[in-house]
Every structure is written in structure tokens, then in C-alpha cells.
Design brief:
Largest sheet: 8 strands, parallel, barrel
CATH superfamily of the largest domain: Luciferase-like domain
Shape: globular
Number of strands: 14
Bound molecules: flavin mononucleotide
Radius of gyration: 22 Å
CATH class of the largest domain: Alpha Beta
Helix content: 25-40%
CATH architecture of the largest domain: Alpha-Beta Barrel
Order of helices and strands: EHEHEHEHHEEEEEHEHEEHHHHEHEHH
CATH topology of the largest domain: TIM Barrel
Number of helices: 14
Strand order of the largest sheet: 1-2-3-4-9-10-11-14
Amino acid sequence: MTMTKKKFHLAWFTNAIPHGWRLDGKGAATWSGNDTTRWMTGEFLIDMARSLDRACFDYIMLEDHVAFGEHGSARLDPVPLMPLMASATKGLGCVATMSTSFYPPFMLARTLASLDHVTGGRVGWNIVTTSEHEAAQAFGQDQQPPHAERYERAAEYTQLVRELWDGWQPDAIVMNEETGKYVDPDKVKILDFEGKFYKCKGALNIARSPQERPVICQAGTSERGRDFSAKYADTILVSTGGADSYAAMKEIRDDIRARAESFGRSGDEIKILYMVTPLVADTLEEAEIMRQRRQPILTDEQIRKRLEGMGHIGMIDLSGLDIDKPLPVIDITKLEGHQATFGNFYNLGLNGKRTVREICNMHNFSSLDLYGTAAMVADRMEEAMDAVGGDGFLIQCRPLTRRYITEITDGLVPELQKRGLVRTEYKYKHFRDNLMEF
Ligand SMILES: Cc1cc2nc3c(=O)[nH]c(=O)nc-3n(C[C@H](O)[C@H](O)[C@H](O)COP(=O)(O)O)c2cc1C
């Protein structure tokens, strides 16, 4: 008798930026076509959403940052793309990143409830707190609060938003022709919320949304981040930063599931997806060449740039370091930036055993080193899920091309489907129901 395998989930992590720009780091020479503004129509992402829908992905998640940045950046706000992607697809979940630091909670609750209605119950919210002071200044504040306070605020914020979403009883729309009432106000709770950071007196003026509340996604895995996710998230995005270790993947999942249980939730209510960049080719030799091209030996200048980027993420100055010596001892829990992401980079140093140069050459955002033919990559994904226990993978690739998307959706996914490891159809109408199916 053949045992049916537990299926795992697939999602994609990307953003609304000019994908394809500077493929080789040389500037405009590699931009395909002359129209450098066309990406701003969202066409690339809408086409991509169609491909992911055909391959039955759980969701597409658009990350976001609002700061212009020292070197300048261009990106679209992900929110308006949600209904565009949803109307081009049948079952794909569409997740927008929205910061608790800048949206007033009432506005975020109303926007997401409306999006859940217009997408027919297929929207999600990636909760971020934002660390950059530059973003705070753009919104008229002097600087962002410290790491701990950002999470404290986010928890209260999420609580308030959930209470707003819960405010309308399912039968609040009565459409009573005799009284002329569309809504029965007795079935809508007027909140009187007064927390440490936020106040709200009122109710949403939009009915309870199809999923009751949009799918909640979160990505920080510091101590505080883990508690936050365990309390509120439906799905968590995790990268073990090039560690290529099933043990590192399992540690996070086991820990978050245990925390969820301690908060009275079941671990199965949270789907933990690991960020990976599978490199799929017709032969192993071709895949090896792709891999070398993606992770070349870095020049001194590239290492400095990488350090600058990691310093920005951790909010720590790494500019004066000798790149042929180990990293200094750093207390990750004291960092005001992204602790888990910086921690992954730091841990590659093995407590002083590797130099900065070696660490930078090893570091990437793929939790596993996945490359080879579709069958070989599928083998490794299957093995990883057996070792870790679940719940799936979050694919990402930079630079992102139509070709890469197709290699995954029409090369790798059919191989996984053939083995019964991923879904072949959307069973339910709503995003959360599909996410919780297995
Ligand atoms: C996979 C992944 C995706 C993220 N996406 C965003 C994003 O779109 N916008 C943002 O401001 N922060 C983003 N972050 C940062 C997290 O929301 C979080 O603030 C950060 O990881 C710090 O959390 P920690 O200190 O608990 O690890 C992301 C982090 C990870 C690991």
C-alpha cells in the first residue's frame, strides 16, 4: 500500500520594483526593451500572478519599504495591485505589506476589509513595523521607536484592527424594506478602544469581510517576533540565510508551534514557509553554472557593499571592519534593526571561525541550496519537508525574470504535483481555507 504524503505549500515573495533592471549590475545595458516605465503598470506582476495561479500557489506576497534610500529606489505601493492580481486569477492569495507604523489602524482595517470584499476573500496582510528612521521622517516623525516598542505597538495595533474587523455580526445587513434599514445598527459594535498607544471610538462602515479577517502574514523571527507571530499570524516567512540546515529550519518551526500552543492556538493554524531560490535546469551541469553565476566570489568592493547592506538591515555600522578578520562579537538581541535576518548572517561566522570575506561569500537568502534538474530539486524539497515537518516554501529570486518564473511554475511545480507533494487545484474560494487545507 502506498502512503499518501502530506502536501506542502508554495508561495512567492517579490515586490513591485523594476524587475530585470541591472541584471549584471552594470546598469541600463541589461534592461530589456526601451520602455523603462512599463513595469509601473503592474503588468509584469499581473502576468506573474496568472502563472502562480495556474501552478496553484497559495499566495503571492509583495514586500514593501517606503524610504527612498541613500542610493535611490523606485517601487509601487503594493495595495493597488491586490485587486488587479486577484481579478486576473481564480484562487491565488494576494498579500500586501502594510506598516503598523504609518497607517492609522482604522484606515488599515477599512482598506483591508474592502480589499477582502473586492477580491472575493483572497487578500492577506504582511504585518511589518518598519525600522528605517528615514521612513518615519517622511511621515513627519523624528525617528522610529526601538525594536521592543515597535513590537509592543504592533501587538496593540493588531488587536485593535481585529476588533474592528469583528465589529459587524454576520447578519448585520438586514435590508428591511419596511423600516428602510440596510444595516441593523444593533448588530454592529461601536468600539471604545483605549490602549497604551492607540485610541479608537467607532465602527467600520463596511460589512464583515468574506474571510472575516484577511490572512495575517509576518516575517520577524527574533524572540519578540516569534511571540508576535505565534499569537497573530496565519503564515510566517522564514529565511535561515544560506544555512542549508534542516535543523535550523526545524528549530524555528518547533519553537513557533510551541509558543502558539502556549497562547491557546494549535500549531497547525500557522503555516511556516521557508524562503528558497531553486535553480532548475535541464542538467545538473547547467544548474551548477547557474549557481556559480548567482554566487560568484565577491570583490573587496562588493564585500564592502554587502556589509553596508547588512549594516542597514541590522542598524549597525560595519564600515570600518577588516574583511579578512572575523566579525566582532555582537549582541543580536540589542540591535534595533532586523534581528533574525542579521542574526543569520552573523551566525555564519561560527563564533569567529570564519572571516567577514568568507561570511559574505556564503550568505544569501535561500534557506536551502537547491539546484539541479526539476527531479533533483523536488527530491531535496521533499526530503527537507520530511525532516522539518512542514509547511512549505516561499520562492524568491533577484533579479526576477519571466524565464525564472516559468522554470518554477511550469518546470518544478509539475514535478512536485506528479509526486502528490503540492496542490493541483484550489479546493476553496477563500485564501485562508486553502492555506489551512493541509
Ligand atoms: C522574508 C522577510 C520579508 C520581509 N518583508 C518586509 C517588508 O516587506 N517590509 C518591511 O518593512 N520589513 C520586512 N521584513 C522585516 C520584518 O517584517 C521584520 O521587521 C524584521 O525581520 C525584524 O524582525 P525581527 O527583529 O523580529 O527578526 C521582512 C523580513 C523577512 C525575513
